[in-house]
Design goal:
The chain is an alpha+beta fold. It has one domain. The protein has a 3-stranded antiparallel beta sheet with strand order 1-3-2, covered by helices on one side. A hairpin with a 2-residue loop joins strand 2 and strand 3. It starts with a helix and ends in a 13-residue tail after the last strand.
């Protein structure tokens, strides 16, 4: 996952219906494994995780 954040700031992650955890729990776990990553949103079984580019961030979250 760290490698994916090296080329983009936002990642969409789908959690399988058969997963033993809900989408928010899975997203929080994944975001916790990458420094500076936060869960932006969950919709259905899809989570959006954001980590700003350390050198040139293109997206700025409000607040």
């Amino acid at each position: 996952m760290q490698e994916a954040f090296n080329t983009r700031e936002l990642l969409k992650v789908k959690v399988l219906q058969e997963a033993p955890v809900d989408v928010r729990e899975a997203a929080d776990d994944l975001a916790g494994r990458v420094d500076g990553a936060v869960v932006v949103q969950t919709i259905g079984r899809t989570a959006v995780i954001y980590r700003p580019d350390p050198e040139k961030p293109e997206i700025k979250l409000p607040g």
